[in-house]
Amino acid sequence: xxxxxxVLALAALLLSGCGQSTTDPGAxxxxxxxxxxDTNQQPQYQACADAFTKANPDYKVKITQYGWSDYWSTLTxxxxxxxxxDVFTSHLSNYPQFAAQGQLLPIDDLVARDKIDLSLYQDGxxxxxxxxxxxxxxxxxDFDTVAxxxxxxxxxxxxxxxxxxxxxxxxxxxxxxxxxxxxxLTVDENGKRGDEPGFDKKHVATYGLGLNSSGSGxxxxxxxxxxxxxxxxxxxxxxxxxTLNYADPRFKETIKWFTSLIDKGYMPSMxxxxxxxxxxxxxxxxxxxxxTEGSWNTKAYWALKGVESGLAPTPVGPTGKRASxxxxxxxxxxxxxxxxxxxxAWMKFLASPACQTDIxxxxxxxxxxxxxxxxxxxxxxxxxxxxxxxxxxxxxQGTTHLALIADRWADVSAVMTETMDAIFSFKAPVDSLDQxxxxxxxxxx
Length: 445
What we know:
Layout: H1 7-16, E1 30-36, H2 42-55, E2 59-65, H3 68-81, E3 87-90, H4 95-100, H5 108-113, E4 142-143, E5 146-151, H6 152-157, H7 176-185, E6 187-188, E7 204-206, H8 224-228, H9 249-263, H10 270-273, H11 279-284, E8 290-294, H12 298-302, E9 309-312, E10 324-326, E11 330-333, H13 340-350, H14 353-363, E12 367-368, H15 373-383, H16 389-397, E13 400-402, H17 409-424, H18 432-444
């Protein structure tokens, strides 16, 4: 990207539909700069890029991949310097701020002009990419849910039939059959299990349940499935809540129970979690018998050496239902792209059956957003020996809950990260959520 042009000028160019480009036609194909963060998904999108270029010889796609920890800071810096990519993979937590700052190109007129059928996508996903200003900024590319991943050998050693995991229940009083399972899978350095007399919670060799972080204000793979199956919701509405519910008694009792697993020695402490060893690596080393994980990481877990894994659904909660956060990614176009017609063509292809159904689904890495591609993706996973029903059952049974989209999410997240870290470290009581809730609601106000 070499220069900045106005959003109005961009819109005029896009709506002309004449295929113009700011690049000299004699200079060869237009290069579309595309950024993403997941190295596991890069091969499938490179395959889409190759198919796109074959169908559109005037365009080619340059894919740049950054790690998640660097992606957003690098992208923000690129917006400031005027070097942002033409198109980039975006996240529900981040795009509202970019849209509010005028850094994204609205695509409403383009969707209407090209008659994009939004009913192709899993219910609710397309609506998530309409910002508070009422404009659309993305088309769904995938969806994800959460399930249990377990070490088959650890279950065998504990005398547990994997089928038992299909009917787990939890409650905030004693944890139900779910906590009993976690306790049984926990083993101290002397070989005593968490449900046996003499268990030493200060010297644990294998934790029954792993932990990725305190979850900040989202808890996607940490605690959201428990809180939501306890009848809790992030706010008074979603997206764009006017108040958030972190002080709700149902949320507080959920977090109190969940952190009690740390105190009992069934789940690692925050000092272990923040030691620099990732949850996946600890699981691969046999330190965790089970983890709660997002569907996007499934293939990576199955690639771990020396571990045979299985999948199980999240437990049924006090509401009588399971729960999973329902998240989905899309691509955004930078408002300062020099090649808006090319950027739209690439975004549209990424959201089409030609990419999602014919290519992405067959790679068996993620679940494409297009409904008809789900079964195809399930078959691709099955060929790898992975039964992904514990993920897709949430969509089939209607037990999904939309990821939170809120104003000033970065500020809300900062408050909640500090608060949740303190609670999970036992440096603050669960009731500190009352004060945190006042702070985040003041931000929204």
